[in-house]
Automatic annotation (TrEMBL), chain A:
Pfam families: DUF6230 (PF19741)
Keywords carried by this UniProt record: Membrane, Transmembrane, Transmembrane helix
Membrane listed as a keyword: yes
Organism: Candidatus Carbonibacillus altaicus
Annotated protein name in UniProt: Uncharacterized protein
Automatic annotation (TrEMBL), chain B:
Lineage, highest ranks first: Bacteria, Bacillati, Bacillota, Bacilli, Bacillales
Protein's organism: Candidatus Carbonibacillus altaicus
Positions of transmembrane segments: 12-29, 35-52, 64-83, 89-110, 122-144, 156-179, 191-211, 217-238, 250-273
Full protein name: Putative membrane protein
Keyword Oxidoreductase: no
Keyword annotations of the record: Membrane, Transmembrane, Transmembrane helix
A matching Pfam family: DUF6114
Length: 203, 306
């Protein structure tokens, strides 16, 4: 392999050593300072559903925005910012239609699921959502305010220092987190037939 | 001995993957049983190779690439089911077609390209070909659905031909790129283009958010991804600058972790690897020598020093 690659072995190790060490330094800096980057976008995978038993957040902000979904390039959405969030029994899922490739083998749908429990902690979360439903939502000092602006996106906003959502389900199009910890994370790929019955993949 | 061991491991992994594919998608077995089946598939395929290797000479050894046709055969056979009406028949047809395509036509094309010095064998050829053939088939089946026609017979032809051609082209591609690698850093540049495309894809996806307040460094994906692509292209056209361009590639790949999540991490890591390859790349001197191969006194063969 080395001969077809036409490389000098010593120089290759030098370059990759410097490269990966510099990357490790940059990533550690990002994590330790927590200020440099606002973006580790978990996007581009279209709409995915964030569900949980309970979300408790501080520094809640909700504002209208325009964003992209898996169906439309431009679509009205709501932007949600949370300074901190504690999420109980998180379930992040994405449904994929595989009827074209695997329909003949009886598999029509695959759901990729990421679960984490008991409690996920995140800082500086930014979400773009196009739907939210919850059994109960509690706000502390809710402030809904209209402001005069030429831009429709700045006319209305909703803020609250504290928010609690019970059994929420958010149809999310992008999730950005400055830092997030996922304890006992599990990744499941569940396969379903045309009737929606689970064939396998759960454990 | 080491080469034989490497090929045995690759055959074993390919066999294991075929067994997992059959167990999970065709037989719908639970995961624990699928894993046991995969283990036996690995032992069987690797074992078969050890038995075969002494019988096959160096030239016939290429026929082992036929294993790459198994999963494409399954997928294409499954696609034919609505047309034939019989799943076992479709799968059988697909399997035979896939194996013949890769073991026959594929090997024929590879030998022709090798004779023209446009293909070179490499260490992990079997497993790379195996994986790329699956990717090519999936892409081909997606294209087929896009050009769906009202004529069943025409659809059947497309379902067979498009994925087969795409899978073979993709499977041969690394060998072709590596064959030109001694003149220009083509392999490093190709990896660089792929990593740049992944980073840019993240940038394009977050682009609508740039117009919002507090969008931070979300622009970084577009810029660093674009620069990574540019550096890769420069690497092909200006091989004499490969050390400098390799360093630049590593720099932009590290930057891609700020704002673009390093192209979902894989794009950035691949970028650093491609930058290291480009930086360490050396042009091989070529010698034109008189060859007396096959009794042809005037035939010239260009061989590299290595």
């Amino acid at each position: 392999m080395r001969s077809v690659l036409s490389i000098e072995r010593k120089r290759f190790w030098m370059f990759s050593g410097i490269g990966y060490t510099a990357l490790a330094v940059v990533i550690s800096l990002l994590f330790f300072t927590g200020t440099v980057f606002a973006a580790f976008p978990l996007t581009g995978i279209g709409g995915f559903v964030i569900a949980a038993d309970k979300i408790t957040g501080t520094g809640f902000k909700l504002y209208p925005q325009i964003g992209e979904t898996s169906e439309k390039s431009v679509w009205p959405q709501a932007g949600v910012d949370l300074a901190t969030a504690e999420i109980e029994n998180l379930n992040l899922s994405k449904e994929l239609d595989v009827s074209k490739e695997l329909g003949s083998y009886g598999i029509y749908k695959v759901i990729v699921e990421i679960t984490a429990s008991p409690e996920v902690n995140g800082n500086n979360l930014k979400l773009s959502i196009s739907g939210l439903q919850a059994d109960m939502v509690e706000f502390n000092n809710l402030n809904v305010k209209e402001s005069k602006s030429d831009s429709a996106l700045n006319k209305i906003g909703m803020t609250a220092p504290g928010i609690t959502l019970i059994k929420p389900e958010l149809n999310t199009h992008s999730l950005l987190a400055q830092s997030i910890s996922l304890p006992s994370m599990k990744l499941k790929i569940k396969a379903f037939d045309d009737q929606g019955n689970l064939i396998g993949g759960d454990f | 001995m080491r080469k034989k061991m490497g090929k045995t491991i690759q055959m074993g992994i390919s066999g294991g993957m075929v067994a997992v594919f059959i167990g999970s998608l065709v037989l719908h077995w639970p995961w624990d049983q699928v894993l046991i089946l995969g283990f036996f598939g690995m032992l069987l395929s690797g074992g078969l190779f050890i038995g075969l290797v002494d019988r096959l000479n160096q030239n016939q050894g290429k026929r082992l690439l036929a294993v790459s046709g198994l999963i494409p055969g399954f997928l294409i056979g499954g696609g034919l089911y609505p047309i034939t009406g019989s799943l076992p028949l479709s799968v059988l047809f697909g399997l035979i077609g896939g194996v013949i395509w890769f073991g026959g036509c594929g090997v024929f094309f590879i030998r022709k390209l090798e004779a023209l010095q446009w293909y070179v064998s490499y260490n992990i050829e079997i497993i790379t070909t195996f994986i790329l053939s699956i990717i090519g088939t999936s892409l081909g089946l997606r294209f087929v659905k896009m050009i769906y026609t009202p004529y069943e017979w025409l659809n059947a032809i497309f379902i067979v031909i498009l994925p087969l051609i795409l899978s073979l082209c993709l499977a041969i591609f690394p060998g072709v790129i590596l064959a030109r690698n001694h003149r220009r850093p083509t392999f490093a540049a190709t990896l660089g283009l792929i990593s740049g495309a992944i980073v840019s894809w993240i940038g394009i996806n977050v682009a609508p958010l740039l117009f919002l307040p507090g969008s931070g460094l979300l622009w970084a994906g577009l810029i660093t991804g674009g620069l990574m692509i540019l550096v890769s292209i420069f690497g092909i056209f200006y091989p004499q600058w490969s050390s400098f361009l390799g360093g630049l590639m590593i720099f932009f790949s590290i930057l891609s972790f700020v704002g673009a999540a390093g192209g979902l991490i894989i794009g950035g890591l691949l970028g650093i690897y491609s930058g290291s390859l480009m930086g360490a790349w050396v042009q091989k001197e070529e010698k034109v020598i008189q060859s007396s191969l096959e009794g042809d006194e005037n035939r010239q063969a260009i061989i590299s020093e290595y």
